Amino acid sequence: SDLWSLAVILFLALTGKLPFRGTPVEVVTAIINDDPPPATSLRAELPPRIDRFFQRALAKRASLRFDTVDELCEALEAALRPRPAEEPETSDGRDPRN
Prior knowledge:
Helices cover 50% and strands 0% of the residues. By secondary structure, the chain is mostly helical. Helix 4 (49-57) runs antiparallel to helix 5. It is globular and about 45 Å long.
């Protein structure tokens, strides 16, 4: 739960919005039932890889989330690392040249 909470803070830091919003009851209901919005829908300049990072970091099932803070940090760094210009990427991770 600590890593999930850290992911919520990272989401807020990168997007300026919490991944789940509303009254306390609405937030708890959303956490249980809803997926967070893609971070790129809130900040289009973020790399598409960040959405996959948050899918894992905020997964409903703990077994699907990162196991350690080191693993989470490495994945975050990789998601935010700029790609060379010759490696374009679409939001679903596919190379648009194919």
